[in-house]
TrEMBL record:
EC assignment: 2.3.1.-
Keywords linked to the UniProt accession: Acyltransferase, Transferase
GO molecular function: acyltransferase activity
InterPro entries listed in its UniProt record: Acyl_CoA_acyltransferase (IPR016181), FemAB-like (IPR007434)
Protein name: GNAT family N-acetyltransferase
Transferase listed as a keyword: yes
This protein's record includes keyword Hydrolase: no
Database matches in Pfam families: FemAB_like (PF04339)
Length: 391
């Protein structure tokens, strides 16, 4: 299978890339590729790869990025591999460049693929893409190649393609998804919740309604200036130095690349913006990207009304299957009906295998999956068995 390689997002044939839809998320779209290209730190390089069949039609794709240092604290291979490889190799890995083969931001990776191809064609495409990604890692003088935040099936595909390289597969994190397509109305949703949770959900919806606040749907480019201070306030609340100017630059960038895919819920009190939730529409899913609030006004469950109750009540489930809620804040999301889906990361030594201790890898995967279940399983509607998450 032939692989076409592009050195910049400007060279990438966007229509062909975006036609790769199997399990496709908004985060692997050409729009987010454009956002990431503008966010690359100095010295970083990239490759966009398209595996093509004999007729030249793209079958699958991969984004590869090379960095001299981790681009984000949560994209640090040395941290995840600590205790699994020997100390000398670990020190070498931390000191040399690294390459990521399935994107490097938004905490979701994938190798998007074309709908309707056979399992054999898909496997051939993944093998071709991972081989070229490993070549890119070698020319970048990286010590480790990582594929971050993959769903289970794709993690196993990538690991199989890198079998000769002794790939290491780690359970990494959990994303949450609200199955909004299950409910035709808010009453349907309340009835679906366990009986002990219904009073709180009803109260949160009722209190918001009585507050006089309203929710208006707009596109991102319309309200960049209005949401910048709200997002800045959210980031500062969580300990980040994140001013309004920086927030405005971030959402201006996303508006330019993804404005036509955006759908933003603006929470207003007497016409004054006091909160927002930014989503992107892709296929049959809404991707909840970020929220922000004015913390000087009383909280009447604004977040849950924006992200859960308003979309359900307004009939989002009639046009989309799910609302993707990303990582974190698990108790709050799961208690209101979001479902957990494990994510995995795959690591490959570039010049030689990482030689990870297989027993320690297995023990860590089990321990961390069980720890999630012990802490959050009680909140999952329908229950949770993390044995299903083990590889």
């Amino acid at each position: 299978m032939h692989v076409s390689s592009y050195d910049s997002v400007d060279q990438l044939p966007a229509a062909e890339w975006d036609a790769l839809v199997i399990g496709g998320t908004i985060y692997s779209s050409s729009g987010f590729a454009g956002v990431r290209a503008e966010e690359l730190p100095p010295g970083a390089t990239t490759r966009y790869l398209l595996a093509r069949d004999a007729q030249g039609t793209p079958v699958a794709g991969a984004e590869a990025y090379a960095f001299t240092r981790p681009p984000h604290l949560l994209y640090t291979p040395a941290d995840l591999l600590a205790g699994l490889i020997d100390d000398e190799r670990h020190a070498q890995l931390a000191a040399r460049p690294m390459v990521f083969g399935a994107g490097w931001s938004e905490f979701r990776g994938q190798l998007p693929g074309r709908e309707g191809v056979s399992a054999q064609e898909r496997a051939q495409a993944v093998r071709a893409l991972t081989a070229r990604t490993l070549d890119f890692a070698r020319t970048s003088e990286a010590d480790v190649l990582g594929y971050y935040y993959l769903p289970r099936a794709e993690a196993l595909e990538v690991a199989e393609a890198h079998a000769e390289d002794a790939a290491v597969v780690l359970y990494h994190d959990v994303e949450t998804v609200l199955p909004v397509g299950l409910w035709q109305s808010l009453d349907d949703y309340f009835a679906w919740l366990p009986s002990g949770r219904r009073p709180r959900a009803r109260r949160e919806r009722r209190d918001f309604g009585r507050s006089g606040r309203t929710i208006r749907e707009v596109s991102l480019p319309e309200v960049v200036k209005e949401i910048a201070p709200l997002n800045s306030a959210l980031m500062r609340k969580h300990g980040h130095a994140y001013g309004e100017e920086r927030a405005a630059a971030v959402y201006d960038r996303q508006g330019r690349h993804l404005g036509d895919r955006s759908t933003l819920l603006l929470d207003e009190d007497a016409g004054q913006p006091i909160g927002f939730a930014l989503r992107y529409r892709h296929g049959d899913t809404l991707y909840a990207r970020v929220a922000g609030f004015d913390y000087s006004v009383p909280n009447v469950a604004d977040y849950f009304n924006l992200v859960f109750y308003h979309p359900i009540e307004s009939g989002a489930g009639r046009t989309v299957r799910a609302i993707h809620l990303g990582l974190g804040t698990f108790q709050a999301k799961l208690a209101r009906g979001a479902q957990p889906h494990p994510l995995y990361s795959v690591f490959v030594g570039v010049d030689r295998p990482l030689a990870a201790d297989a027993t320690k890898v297995s023990e860590r995967n089990r321990a961390e999956a069980e720890a999630f279940g012990a802490e959050y399983g009680q909140y999952v509607v329908g229950g949770l068995n993390t044995d299903d998450w083990l590889l």
